[in-house]
Structure formats: C-alpha cells, structure tokens
Amino acid sequence: MECLNKPHVHVRDREHVERILAKMVADGPNKLQVVADFDRTLTKFTHRGQVCATCHNVLEEGGLPEEYKEEAYKLRDKYFVIEVDPNMTIEEKTPYMVEWWTKAHELLMKYPLSKAMLHNMVANSSARLRDGCIRFFDSLHSNDIPLLIFSAGVGDVIQEVIAQQSTLYDNMHIVSNFIDFDENGTLIGFKSDIIHVYNKNENAVHDSDYFPNLSHRTNLLLMGDSLGDLQMANGAESLEAKLTIGFLNTRVTESLALYISKYDIVICEDETMDIVNNIVSNILASV
Ligand code: TMP
Ligand code: MG
Fold first, then answer.
1. Is 207 a catalytic residue?
2. DSSP 131
3. The whole model's pTM is what?
4. Which UniProt keywords apply (predicted)?
5. Is the beta carbon of 100 within 6 A of some atom in ligand 1?
6. Could you tell me the residue range of the domain that residue 26 belongs to?
C-alpha cells in the first residue's frame, strides 16, 4: 500500500504487515472488527497549533468554577509528563495513573456538573475528531463492522463529541468511565471502576460477551496512541490476524524506537485518519 511509504509512517516488519493486510483484504469486511482508543487516537492532539482537549479537558475548559480548572490543570501538569515518559515502564507509571484518575474524579465530585451542561461544554470545547474520522465511522457503519471505542476518558463526553461532530452509530460500542448522575442529573460519581491508560488489559469488557460474540470476526484492527492501548483487545481469543496502528503525537524523537518495537505501524504527528482510511478502504474494496 502506497500510503505506508510516507516518511512519517513507520512499519516495523514490512513482510509481516503485508501478509496481515493481504489476509484482511482477502477475507473482507465480514471478518473484520475494529478496536480504537478515543483521546488522541480518534481525536486530534493539536489543531491549528493549539493542543486539543481530551474528554477530561472538555470538563475543565468550561462551565465549572475557575478553581476547578486550576486544580485539574495542576494534576494534568504533574501526571501527563509521567504518562508519556519514554524512560519509565508501564509498571512504574501505573500507580501514578491510578492517583491521577482518582484525584481527578474526586475533584470533579466537589462541583455541580450536570448532564444538561455537557452539550454546551462539548460544543464550546477544543476537542476535535481527526480529519477523516467522519469517513472512517461512515464506512465502518455502512459495512456493518463493529467498532469498540475503549477509552480512559469520559464516556458521556465521547458520546457527545461523536454525536456533535459525526454520527453515533449502532455499530459502535463505548467502554469508558461513565458518569453516575443522580435523579436531578447532577454528577455523584462514576459508574464502574476507573479505566486509566494502563489498565485496559484488566477491564470488564474482557470478561463480557463482547469479544466472544464477535469470534467469527477473526481479523482485528487496533488503533491507539498510548502503549497501554495495545492491551485493549486482550479478550479477543479467536483471532487469525491482528494489525496494530499507533499514533505517536508527542515526544516523537525519544519515543519512536519504543513505539516501533510495539506497534506494527506507527504514524507520527498526523492529525488525520488518512492512513487508516486508506487501509480500511483497501479491505472494503474486496467486497
Ligand atoms: P484515552 O484512553 O481515550 O486516550 O483517554 C485518556 C487520556 O485522558 C490520557 O491521555 C490522559 C487524559 N486525561 C486528562 O487529560 N485529564 C485527566 O484529568 C485525566 C484523568 C486524564
Ligand atoms: Mg489516547
């Protein structure tokens, strides 16, 4: 595939990737399932030079008192550098991530966030689906290909971002931190155990029927921007082919070798879905 020859696209083992892609193309859409992370994978890292909001940042950017924003930004400044530090192992980072999510969610519970505020918070936010994401969603939907969005962000924000900037289709299944609202629509906590960037291997989706129900879909495309995202499809056991695509958005020079050693394809500092759309359209072309 021509698109894999671009200078910002790195392929670890070309022969392996070509073999996997040839199988996916030959098997076509009926055998395919897709698993994607949300923040900085389906959404952009930057847009017109500005860093874009993650799900949590959407809540920080508007609607709640200034002191909430200040406290949340302090947490982000402390922990984001740890999340993306190429010199720390996942085991070393994990306790800090648990701390970050716990503190962020406890902080949020001190403020009156209501369900009704979410629409405008998302509309006024800097969260942006990648260019080409609408086409990506549309083609998976029109070919009945299941898409699992597995995110350490906030599920309610994800639904709102997709509904506002594209279409929330019934082939999409979102596993994330969903807000627990009381009967008045005010946040009282989160519905299940914390999903952070490095525990996507131990989440309930892996004990659910999700992957077993898709066991006839033996080819899986996985997309993420964090090394923790590689664990998202651990529950899929009957796979014949798996292709992993990593978006490397920041600290490219120091992290590239590590990303190439983990992901089949690494796409650097690219705010579009072009490479993925190209791969998907090749698989769909076999219909
Ligand atoms: P993801 O799994 O959809 O990529 O979402 C996780 C991202 O959320 C991760 O990159 C860190 C980010 N994050 C914030 O920006 N602010 C926060 O308060 C928390 C807890 C996470
Ligand atoms: Mg992410």
1. no
2. B
3. 0.96
4. Cytoplasm, Hydrolase, Magnesium, Metal-binding, Nucleotide metabolism, Nucleotide-binding
5. yes
6. 2-46+129-284
